[in-house]
Automatic annotation (TrEMBL):
It comes from Sterrhoptilus dennistouni. This is RNA transcription, translation and transport factor protein. Belongs to the RTRAF family. It comes from the Eukaryota.
Length: 224
């Protein structure tokens, strides 16, 4: 609204900026005058605003910044130690959401502790100690919780395998050696499957640490 905008400019000058003497504010206060835009343009130049009056949003933002700076300058002792309530609440929320955020990653004791844990858990070293700590946390959550240990401790009963149904692909000329070769091939396939599973787990763990935006490996696309 044009009238509200003009009143706002007058209020800023009267209450906060006070660039003109009171007797020199008449033209700016006459908000219903057809010449008010010219008075406003002169005012913007007089306070050294770098924007033109056509750039209204930028001009308003700059004038507000000037008003805040002048207000602070007049009451520096009052405002210098103030913290907005919203910032306090945001800080508390951030602390609760991410307990690692306040750690001093440059502290030698912190680095030594992370390195000791990484060596104990056989986690590869990283230049960023905070990344290493997050990797340790993921490993502990996924592998060292009571549920994870109990699941890993469960004995796995193997299924009987009929060797005659698995074609070896070559013949050594000895039935015993042929059977041993079939067993070795089946064991090798099982090792390859375990290796592939570990590779998949490693990819997921790396994505959990560094991916941003997060990667949904099941869908094969990136997004939140």
């Amino acid at each position: 609204d044009e009238t509200e905008f003009r009143n706002f400019i007058v209020w800023l000058e009267d209450q906060k900026i006070r660039h003109y003497k009171i007797e020199d504010r008449g033209n700016l206060r006459n908000i219903h005058s057809e010449d008010w835009p010219k008075s406003f343009e002169k005012y913007v130049k007089d306070v050294n605003c770098p924007f033109k009056i056509q750039e209204r949003q930028e001009t308003v933002d700059w004038l507000l910044g000037l008003a805040v700076r002048l207000e602070y300058g007049d009451n520096a002792d009052k405002y210098k130690d103030s913290t907005p309530d919203g910032a306090k609440n945001a800080d508390n929320t951030a602390k609760n959401a991410e307990p690692l955020i306040n750690l001093d990653v440059n502290n030698p004791d912190f680095k030594a502790g992370v390195m000791a844990l990484a060596n104990l858990l056989q986690i590869q070293r990283h230049d960023d100690y905070l990344v290493m700590l997050k990797a340790i946390r993921i490993l502990v959550q996924e592998r060292l919780t009571q549920d994870a240990i109990a699941k890993a401790s469960q004995s796995k009963e193997g299924l009987p395998v009929a060797l005659e149904k698995h074609i070896l692909g070559f013949d050594t000329g000895d039935a015993v050696i042929n059977e041993a070769a079939q067993i070795l091939r089946l064991l090798h396939i099982e090792e390859l499957r375990e290796l592939q599973t570990k590779i998949n787990e490693a990819i997921v763990a790396v994505q959990a640490i560094i991916a941003d935006p997060k990667t949904d490996h099941r869908l094969g696309k990136v997004g939140r």
